[in-house]
Design a protein that fits this description.
The complex is a heterodimer. By secondary structure, chain A is mainly α. Chain A has one domain: ABC transporter involved in vitamin B12 uptake, BtuC (Orthogonal Bundle), CATH 1.10.3470.10. Chain A is 81% helix and 0% strand. Chain A has 13 helices and no strands. In chain A, helix 1 runs antiparallel to helix 9, helix 1 crosses helix 10 and helix 2 runs parallel beside helix 4. The relative contact order of chain A is 0.17. The N terminus and C terminus of chain B are likely disordered. The termini of chain B are far apart. Chain B has a single domain, classed as Rossmann fold. By secondary structure, chain B is of the alpha/beta class. Chain B is globular, with a radius of gyration of 20 Å. In chain B, helix 4 packs across helix 5. Classes of the chains: A mainly alpha, B alpha/beta. Chains A and B meet through helix 7, helix 8 and helix 11 of A and strand 6 of B.
């Protein structure tokens, strides 16, 4: 079944969406979209490094993202610049640095388009294995830290006062985010990963009555968008990554048109 | 003076962990929940608080009062361990279970959070306990409502219910009646007083409202960066340092002291001693209870 490149693409895309949805909910709740963007952009540096050192690209992207994430957490607490500015500074610097590094690697013929926008139609069975093994690890870890992570998201001081260690939990979450970005790059590309994190979550919001429900809905909406986007890209011969993001955006627009949970509750009471 | 008082014996060195579960040196050590000794917090070279001593025991209500920026919240957060003290020490009873109602809690619209889900935010709470706590604060009917749809007063009750449902040893309330109307305010204070008798917890309370300091409070601590004065509500109200801090107007502090011959129900009505439910506690005004006030020109609690 996985012989067909299109089937492989759909299986890989769904795998990424199932992880990105729940994690993306936290990115939305914590207003970390820009943070995710910065991590994603820095993964270009990780890619360049993997060519220089000839090591596995997912591994090097993961390691570089974690390093950048940890320094971000540190800088946000220390530096005098606003965290917004620090993110903007690092986000674009990392992207530019990555592009410059790749330009120096004259002996590597790198498909820049594929790096920036994803090359889902070229995923191998090994890639699928990496996506599902890594994705399962992320989801299991997320479920394990769900309650303290959610409590910290709602109110850090409250969580800390009642015995949840927010610093540890935050660092752990950022590592999960870096891992998700590392496994998603091949499918969706450096520039559009954040979209797959936040748009399905945003689309799920109006139908969710609780955080757990929103996470499951976001995963479902993401998976549907992957299927829709890939069929669209096959039909109209459009690049796969952007097509998937367009599909998530359409899902979001549709969600605006449908009656929300709150509205349905209100109607029921009438 | 706060400047020299922090250097007494028995304090851990600054490098030592400021929070420990060491034995209390009091004979009532079994009853002491948390003890802060000469704590100070410094930010950008300025002491936000300094030289604060504070002890909360089981079944006791300690109220912090003071003007804006006097370090009430900072003191509470330091006692809770959210802020690390730059000097002094904090000793907590081992396995102390804390219920905290923060001063501000903004729930973003993007967070789908029902009142019922809010209850088990930091730990699992059984369904029966969740319902009981919501009933206790009078918002049992709102369990399935989204937190964002609540009024200020309802939200404040939900936060109190959440802290209660944890069955805490120490309940910490940072201005728990903000956004609550005056009648509801009295009802909430009555409820808080009942809570400590019922579950036997110690309560650390911040109130910026000088006019509604509960008579139920065992000790009032008046802060202004340092300890201004402390004692029973009555003695603080008469303390020269207190009067200097708040001006002569503060002498008319309304200590919420009345005989508990009636109960304020959560919906604002009142259950009288003989079991009647009335709209206010003056109805009919038969002087079955009195409003004690310490000074002339005092307004008693409304209701």
């Amino acid at each position: 079944m996985l012989d067909d490149f299109f089937t492989r693409a759909i299986v890989a895309g769904i795998g990424v969406a199932l992880v990105a949805g729940p994690l993306g909910c936290f990115v939305v709740w914590r207003r970390m979209a820009y943070f995710g963007d910065t991590l994603a952009h820095s993964s270009l540096l990780g890619l360049a490094l993997s060519y220089i050192l000839s090591i596995n690209s997912t591994l090097s992207v993961f390691v570089v993202s974690v390093l950048i994430a940890m320094s971000l957490l540190y800088l946000q607490r220390r530096a005098s610049l606003s965290s917004d500015s620090i993110l903007g500074l690092l986000s674009h610097s990392a992207l530019a640095l990555g592009l410059v590094c790749i330009a120096f690697l004259t002996w590597v013929r790198l498909d820049l388009q594929g790096v920036l926008f994803g090359d889902i139609l070229a995923v191998s069975t090994t890639d699928i294995l990496v996506i599902y093994a890594g994705g399962a690890a992320v989801l299991i870890a997320l479920i394990a830290i769900w309650r303290p992570l959610f409590a910290t998201t709602v109110n850090r001081e409250l969580a800390e006062a009642e015995g949840v260690g927010p610093d540890r939990i935050n660092a752990f979450f950022v590592i999960l985010l870096a891992l998700t970005i590392a496994i998603a790059i091949k499918v969706i590309g450096v520039l559009l990963i954040t979209a797959l994190l936040i748009i399905p979550a945003a689309a799920a919001r109006r139908f969710a009555a609780g955080p757990e429900q929103m996470a499951v809905l976001a995963a479902g909406i993401g998976a549907l968008s992957v299927v829709g986007g890939l069929f669209g890209s096959l039909e109209w011969d459009t690049p796969s990554g952007p097509s998937i993001v367009v599909a998530t955006f359409i899902a979001f627009l549709v969600s605006l048109a449908l009656p929300s949970v709150a509205l349905r509750q209100r109607l029921r009471r009438l | 003076m706060p400047g020299n008082s922090h250097a007494h014996d028995g304090l851990p060195k600054r490098s030592a962990p400021p929070v420990s579960t060491m034995d209390f040196n009091h004979q009532d050590r079994a009853n002491t929940l948390v003890q802060a000794q000469q704590i100070g917090v410094q930010r950008n070279g300025r002491w936000l608080i300094r030289g604060i001593d504070l002890t909360v025991r089981k079944g006791e209500i300690i109220t912090l009062i003071g003007p804006n920026g006097s370090g009430k919240s900072t003191t509470v957060k330091t006692v809770l361990g959210v802020i690390k003290p730059d000097e002094g020490s904090i000793t907590r009873a081992p396995d102390l279970r804390i219920g905290y109602v923060p001063q501000r809690l903004a729930i973003d619209w993007t967070l789908p959070l029902t009142v019922d889900r809010l209850m088990s935010l930091t730990g699992p709470i059984s369904k029966a306990d969740r319902r009981a706590a919501l009933e206790e604060v009078g918002i049992g009917h709102l369990a399935q409502s989204e937190v964002g749809a609540l009024s200020g007063g309802e939200f404040q009750r939900a936060l109190l219910a959440r802290a209660l449902a944890r069955k805490p040893d120490l309940l910490v309330l940072d201005e728990p009646v903000q956004g609550v109307d005056v009648a509801g305010e009295a009802a909430l204070y009555t409820l808080i007083d009942q809570i400590r008798h019922k579950i036997g917890c110690g309560i650390l309370l911040i109130s910026h409202d000088l006019h509604v300091v509960m008579a139920a409070t065992d000790t009032v601590l008046c802060l202004n960066g340092h300890m201004c004065c402390s004692g029973t509500p009555q003695s603080v109200a008469e303390d020269p340092a207190y009067l200097q801090l708040f001006g002569p107007r503060a002498a008319s502090i309304a200590v919420y002291a009345h005989h508990h011959d009636h109960t304020h129900l959560p919906d604002g009505r009142v259950r009288q001693q003989d079991g009647r439910i009335t709209e206010t506690c003056h109805e009919p005004h038969d002087h079955s209870h009195s409003h004690e006030t310490p000074k002339s020109g005092v307004t008693g609690h409304v209701g």
